[in-house]
Each structure stands twice: as structure tokens, then as C-alpha cells.
Please model this.
Amino acid sequence: MFDIAIIGAGPAGMSAAIYARRAGLSVAVFEGEMCGGQMILTPEVENYPGIAHISGAELSYTMSEQMRTLGTEVIDSHVDKVTASDCYTVSAGGKEYTAKTIIIANGAKRRKLGIEGEEKFSGRGVSYCAVCDGMFFKGKITCVIGGGNTALEDAIYLSRICEKVYLIHRRDEFRAKKILVDGVLSTPNIEIIYSAMPKEIIGDMKVTSVVINTADGERTIDTSAVFVAIGLEPQNQVFEELVALSDGYIVAGDDTHTTRDGVFAAGDTRTKSLRQIVTAAADGAMAATEAEKYLFG
Ligand code: NAP
Model:
């Protein structure tokens, strides 16, 4: 039996594992995809204290190596279920594992637009990750949907690869940080289309255009790719019988305590006001420390 089962290996889960291993606890981290979570999809990280500039992929790799070197057991399986009895049973990849405490750090996934053509052209021009897929559209015209930090970061990243990037936002004001807004405004090959909602993605074998609704009526933009960056959606259906949720997020404060003793929630998956790599990492440290207190008083 593990002292702690950590679900998810983004910055929250990996930070929890690092703290827990350094406290001498036995730790299993369950990760169905690559270690890093949303961080791995981030082109450039420039707000993590002590590291002026690093790619999300490199920071993910560094954290993962640190976590593994400390002796964390990483189980490459997606968690299907967690049940509570005298201890916790984690069902993952057709096997069952037991643990005395649980830290849920499964993050959140990118939201979908839900418009015609999105599903059909997913992987054929529709993408949720500029860093992963941007190079496929080298020298081409692309567009990014959204007005938050991710959309603007993606637009800036793509502007260095693509001939032109349309940034399509539903309002006339961005919610992204000023440094990113200044960045898109000063990039000559980014054209911003404000107050526009995507209606349909069109193509044959691959995406050829996107139809948007604007104040002046419908407009068709020729593009080879549509990068969707319209926010995050928690993936907590599997935990709804274990802990309380609010709008899909696990109800937990800064101490990471959920509504169930022995279960902690860290990072983007919990109710919180600031979702950043540094706040996820801080949550992981807190959750591991609270789990240790729960185990040993
Ligand atoms: P976000 O901040 O929630 O922004 C989502 C954007 O998509 C908003 O501009 C929103 O429009 C728009 N949107 C939402 N639903 C839409 C729809 N159905 N159709 C069209 N547009 C839609 O999401 P995010 O940018 O992915 O960021 C997620 C979290 O990670 C945030 O907390 C963010 O601050 C953080 N993050 C931080 C950094 C950084 O610090 N460098 C980088 C990336 C992400 P409205 O503005 O009109 O609501």
C-alpha cells in the first residue's frame, strides 16, 4: 500500500511527489499521458521564479526527472475510479492499487468550441495545441480562437512559424495579461478580429476556412488551421461520488483539503482564482504536507 496516490503529473502532481518523497513517504503517481499536463503545451514560460525563460516541455522534463530521481513510482495509466473504505483503492489500467491518502492533481483539459466541422477536422487542421502542431503549418495562414493568455501566447508562437495568424476573439477586449496583449498588437503578421464568434469549420480532406459571425454579418476566413484556445474544462466526473464539486472543479481551499478526509486536491482541478504553473506547484507542496500531517499527525 502506498502512503500517497497522486492522480496526475502536471506541476501540481509532480511538486506533491517531490515534497512527499523528500518527507520519506511512499508515492505512486498516475499519469495516463505525458508528465507535464497543460504545462507541456505552453510555448514559453517566463514567470516561474528563478527561471527567466524555459519552454513548457523542458520544464516538464526537468520536474519529471527530479520526481523520478527521488524514487517516485510513476504508473502510466489513466485513473478510472477511486473508492474509499479503510483505505483508498485506485483503479487504473485494469489494475487496482491501494493508498492511505489521495492527492487529486489531474488538472483540466482544453475546452471545445462545439461547432460544425470541429470534430470532423480534429487532427486535420483543428488543433488544441499550438506547440505540438504549429510546425505542420509552417509558412501557411492559421487562426487562433480565444482571448485569454493561452490564445495570445499561441498566436505569438504561431506568428514566428506561419505567414499570417488571425486571432479571433468574441469580445472587443482581451482578458490576457498586458504583456501578451502588447505582444500581439505589435506583431505585424497577427490580424485581430474582435467581436466575432466562429460558426463552422470548413474543409475537404483538411481545413480550408472558418466561418465567423461578426457584427457586420457572416465572414469566411481562408485558413489552413484553427487553433482552439478558449479555456479549460475540469475532468472530474470520475470523482463526483468521492468529493464535492463546484462547476466541475473539486471544492478545496488553499489548504487543498476536499470534503473528504484524506483526499486533497491540488492545481487547476480545484476551485481557485489563479491557475498558473507556480500556483499549481505551490498547491502540490501544500497537499503533500497536509497528507503527511493526516498520516502522522
Ligand atoms: P481563459 O483565461 O479562461 O480564456 C478563455 C478565452 O476564450 C476567453 O477570452 C473567452 O472569452 C474565450 N472563450 C471561452 N469560451 C468561448 C467560446 N465558446 N467561444 C469563443 N470564445 C470563448 O483560458 P486560457 O487562456 O486557456 O487560460 C486558462 C488558465 O490558465 C487561466 O487561468 C490563465 O490565466 C492561465 N494561463 C496562464 C498563462 C500565463 O500566465 N502565461 C498562460 C496560459 C494560461 P471571454 O474573454 O469573452 O470570456
Notes: The chain has a mean pLDDT of 96. Residues 112-228 form a domain with the FAD/NAD(P)-binding domain fold (CATH 3.50.50.60). The first strand starts at residue 2 and ends at 7. The chain has six helices and 19 strands.
